[in-house]
C-alpha cells in the first residue's frame, strides 16, 4: 500500500521512518548513524523546501492534489522554514536525512495534506534538485567574488603599471617586467575561472524533478512548470540520468580545483615576495601571525593556508570522480557521499576568495627592492641581443656576443649597463651610444609595446579595460 493512499494505515507521522511497515527488525544505532546524512546536509534544507513548494504547486496545477491540500502544504513548509531559520527545528537521526525530517514535521503540522507532498516524486529526484539549487546559489556567490578579486588585482596593477621588478623563469632573473603586468597575469587566470563557473552553471541549472525514483511517474505532471518556478533553464531529459549522475558537481569541483590552483600559485609568490630575503611586498598585519617563540616573526599564514587548502580541494575532486566511477544506473546510495567534499570545496572557495578580495588591496609594494633585484642578474641581456639584431646581426650571433659581455661583467663584478661605450664597441663595432637606451630597465619594459606586453602603457590600458568591465 502506498504512503499516499487515502486508506493507508501507515501513520507516517507516528512512525520513526517512512518504510517501517516493510521491515521486521530495526537497524542498529551504528547502522543508523552510518546511513544517515541529516547531520551534514542541513544546509540543503531551505532548498529542499523551495523544491517542495514548486513540486506541490505543480501537483495542484495539474490537479494531482487539491488546492486546499496545496495551501496547507505551503503554509506548513513556510512554518518549517521559519523554525529552521530560528534554530528551533528538531532534527532527528531516526529520520535519516533532511528530506524525511522536513516531511515528517510537515505531516505533524498539516496532517494528510503533508502526506500527499511526496506524490509523483522520490528522494532521488528530490536530493538531486536540492543539490542543484544549492550549488547554483554557491556558484553565483563565488562567481561574484571572482569578479571582485579580478577588479582588486586590476586596481593594484593600475597603481603599479610602471613599477619595475625582475621577471623570472626557473626562478632565475630573466627579463624586467612591471609589477602591474605580473599581477594582471592572475587577473587573466581568475577571469577564465569565472567563465568556467558560468559554464558549469548551465549544466547545474537543469531540473531533475519528476524523474522520481528512476523511471519517471505515472501522474500527469508538468515538469517544465516546476522547473520554471525554480528558475531552472530546462529539465533533465532522461529520468535515469537525472537521478544518478553527479557530473555537474564533479565539474564544479574541477573548476574550484583550478581556482585554488591559481590561488596557490599567487600565494606561493606572496610568501616568496614577503620573505625578508626578497622584500618585495608586505601584507597587511591582519593576514599574518607572529611566532610564539621568535619575537621578530611575521608569518604570511593566510597565503600559506590557502596554498595548503588547495590540496584538500583537489582531493575532493578525486573523491567525487571515484565515487561516480563504475556506478551502474540509476541511483545508488553511494551518491549520498557526494555532499561533504562538495560542500567543503564550495566553502573553501567562498572563504578563500572573500579573504583574497580583502588581502589584495592591502599589499604594500617596496619599489626600491624590486628595482634593485631587477638590476641584478643581467635582466636586459636579451635587449642588448635584440639591439644587435636591429643593427643587422643574425640573432644567434647577437646571442653569443651578449653572452661574452655577460661573462666579462661577471668577472669584473659589474652590470651590462656599467660597461663603457668603448668596452661595448670592443664586443661589436655596430654598437653606438643609443645602446644605453635599451640597457636601462625602463627602456627594456617600454620596448615591449604590444597587446599582452609588459610596457607600462599596455599594462595601464589592460588594467583600465578590466576595470571598465569590457
Ligand atoms: N540522503 C540521500 C542522498 O543524499 C537521499 C536519497 C535517498 N534515496 C534512496 N533511495 N535511499 O543521496
How does this structure look, described?
- With 470 residues, the protein is mainly alpha-helical.
- The chain is built from 19 helices and 6 strands.
- A two-stranded antiparallel ribbon has the order 1-2. A two-stranded parallel sheet has the order 3-4. The protein has a two-stranded antiparallel sheet with strand order 5-6.
- Helix 2 (45-61) packs across helix 8 (223-229) and helix 14 crosses helix 15.
- It starts with 28 loop residues before the first helix and ends with a helix.
- The structure holds arginine.
- Arginine binds at residues 37, 97, 123-124, 127, 331, 333, 335-336.
- The site of arginine (ARG) has 9 residues, from helix 6.
Give a short summary of the structure.
The protein is mainly α and 470 residues long. It contains 19 helices and 6 strands.
Q: Average pLDDT across residues?
A: 94
Low-confidence stretches: 1-11
Secondary structure tally: strands: 6
Query: Over all CA atoms, what is the radius of gyration?
Result: 31 Å
Compute the separation of the termini in Å: 61 Å
- Identify the bound ligands: arginine
Question: Largest sheet, if any?
Answer: 2 strands, antiparallel
Q: What is the topology, as strand order, of the major beta sheet?
A: 1-2
Shape assignment: elongated
What is the SS-derived class? mainly alpha
Number of helical elements: 19
Relative strand content: under 5%
Quaternary status:
single chain
Order of helices and strands: HHHHHHEEHEHEHHEHHEHHHHHHH
**Helicity range of the residues?**
55-70%
